[in-house]
Amino acid sequence: MNNHIQLFENQQIRSVWDNEQEEWFFSIIDIVAVLTESADPKQYIKKMRSRDNELNLKWGTICTPVEMIAQDGKKRKIQAATMQGIFRIIQSIPSPKAEPFKMWWCSGW
Predict the structure, then answer these.
(1) N or C: which end of the chain has fewer CB within 10 A?
(2) CA 70 to CA 93: how far, in whole Å?
(3) How far from each other are the two terminal CA atoms of the chain, in whole angstroms?
(4) Which InterPro entries match (predicted)?
(5) CA–CA distance from 30 to each of 20, 100 (Å)?
(6) What tens digit of pLDDT does each residue of 23-71 get?
(7) Which of the two residues, 10 and 36, has the higher pLDDT score?
């Protein structure tokens, strides 16, 4: 797996290419932080899951622990999702940044 940093509006989104699955995985917490500007994205995710029962039920399918470089510079398992999973999560975030983010994403960042 290769670690990469993508930039959306000058904010970092950690990503990893998985050679076996031939897919990108993106840090869920980074995307939630970018879209919500929440001071505590982990709490935002908990509240989002409690509001969206269907998302909560499928969280284990959407979310995969993937080894990435953490904020402290060490490799850690980070909750991540493929593009399909990220789009499902975005549906649960009422943010004016959601559409620009989707456009950025679809353009290949």
Answers:
(1) C
(2) 24
(3) 19
(4) BRO_N_domain
(5) 23, 16
(6) 999 999 999 999 998 999 999 999 999 999 999 999 999 999 999 988 7
(7) 36
